[in-house]
Amino acid sequence: MNAIAPDVTFDLATTPLRELNEALHKATAESNARRWRVLNPNGRHAVAVGLAMPLTVEIEGNVGYYCAGMNAEASVIIHGNAGQGVAENMMSGFVHVRGDASQSAGATAHGGMLVVDGNASARCGISMKGVDIVVKGSIGHMSAFMGQSGSLVVLGDAGEALGDSLYEAKLFVRGTVKSLGADCIEKEMRDEHKALLAQKLKAAGLEGAVDVSEFKRYGSARQLYNFHVDNASAY
Amino acid sequence: MTAHNNTPRTPPRFSSTFDPATLAEIRRAAATGIYDIRGGGTKRKLPHFDDLLFLGASMSRYPLEGYREKCGTEVTLGTRFAKKPITLKTPVTIAGMSFGALSAQAKEALGRGASTVGTSTTTGDGGMTPEERGQSKTLVYQYLPSRYGMNPVDLRKADAIEIVIGQGAKPGGGGMLLGQKISDRVAAMRTLPKGIDQRSACRHPDWTGPDDLEIKIEELREITDWEKPIYVKVGASRPYYDTALAVKAGADVVVLDGMQGGTAATQDVFIEHVGIPILAAIRPAVQALQDLDMHRKVQLIVSGGIRTGADVAKALALGADAVAIGTAALVALGDNDPQWEDEYQALGSTAGAYDDWHEGRDPAGITTQDPELSKRLDPVKAGRRLANYLSVMTLEAQTIARACGKSHLHNLEPEDLVALTVEAAAMAGVPLAGTTWVPGKTGGY
Question: Could you tell me if B224 lies within 8 Å of chain A, comparing CB atoms?
Fold first, then answer.
């Protein structure tokens, strides 16, 4: 399955999750064990959370909630589907879901990149704070709700209320958007935005795979940035 | 003198329903079109600890000698699951208050005061500042819906984690830090532009309900290698069920905040009309712990209107393991101090009533990000005042406990208490003074 043999293999069918996460936390910059493989995750929650080193962790199967939560520097590849809150509050590094992702993918993440090969459910990128998220399929409703910064790139469609109460996160959608949330508007796609989008697509391994001119850009109208009673009906 | 002048007249009489304060609020609302936003907790009169009394020792109970016999005050939190529980010398802790709502100097002063007496302080929405971590021997890191400033490095620096579901001033409400308090530093910590209003969400972004919370707690434990106590904080509204569900979700500690608990900025209507007083919340929470055989195994911290050692003793007698103070700690630092009366007057308020904390113009330099105002608060001196105050509260609680014959504050019990009012007797589950009548429970005489 992997071209390069892993340095360490953990089988969650026989080893407690706590031992896996503790071992990953103990990895040091000097360690030679850079490639980790996790077998039989079987939907376990909190797999490979709180990593703080540039390791590569390949997970062979489906994971439950919060896989790669608070990730920093590590690359976590999930060869399966991911449950709620994958890569939540990620600081840096790279998380790749080869299947679909459930709700709140990349929630509140501050940095790094999350790539979902399939679809992502509701609230993808909710309250995102600097992460780049690329979803090759479609995303569910209320995605990028209160998104503060970073970018969300969707090759498929977006559900209802995209970008509701958005701050400065940048949204790019290639397909249809069912509806926009409060204070989210379509914006002009200038060259600088095309360049930014191309850069994110390249980082996600999609250079040349899709044409940036097929995307529309969405962002904050910035009308709700300071409370005013005349806008009360928008809240 | 005419006959007319001798006729008795009805004097002007204000309506109890439409009293002057109500009339003024109607006029203010009519003039502005916006609800009133303010800081602090509820200002209405409520059943409270003042409505309880200790019985003290008598023929059948023996007091302890005040200056000779020990009365312990220490409390250990997080004994259920955490590898590293925290032990505090006094059960009076400092509640979560954010850098953003408070100045960096005020946060530092809270850390200094708490550390001097061996208790903990707590971060707030907006993350952990180096000043606060540096000056706080024991620091609780709040995990809030907004996740402003949340990061794994600070999480590992914390001594405990407090997952905030709600707070007493506004159970079910999020928050709003208005643009005038968003300095460059506050903006950077929250990853938002300077000067815009910062909304704090009312629900967590990646979980909903107690079953999800159980998984969230597992994740936080896995990230921190099961070392840190995990608290769950709720605003007092349905304390029996909230406590039971927090225990079920795997909390080490439940924090229960009554409606007297303060807030940095919330609608007055929310503060005054949502939630229940702490007096009404403690017994149901303790009952939930007892029903689950978790009393003293999952610790209970209560807050909301704690002012004196008597309040501490009463909260502990009702079954709490510790208390938290927020408003009282700010007053000890210098909030609403009469020395700034001229400036409070200029802001249309008066010392003791100033609550426009959200405007960022606090003359005492505490609830502000204005560099000139903030400089007025000396963190060392203010920390010393807080330490003094915490010491007094602890001594007062010990005084009462010894009078009841208790060698530790945790040995205080409901049997030591009576109530002055029927309402307090019902809420606290103790007899009305001079009777054996506990409303709703016993017949009495």
Answer: yes
